[in-house]
Amino acid sequence: MKHEYTVEVLYHFTCSRCQNWWSWASTPRTNLTNVPLSLPENEFVFCPHCGFKNTLKIKDGFIEEKT
Fold this sequence. Notes:
Blueprint: E1 9-14, E2 21-26, E3 45-46, E4 53-54
Antiparallel strand pairs: 1-2, 3-4
């Protein structure tokens, strides 16, 4: 018998208004090589702290460019 495991993708958000942060976890249910890690930038998300609604963008410098 082998050890078993699952995979969880964890997203961390920072509110553009109140600067508080929160996290959201997702468990992919498909082949992991096909899992898109970026979230859609045109969908609105609400801050659970202050309720401000805004779209998303990945933090500058988070994804390193290969040179």
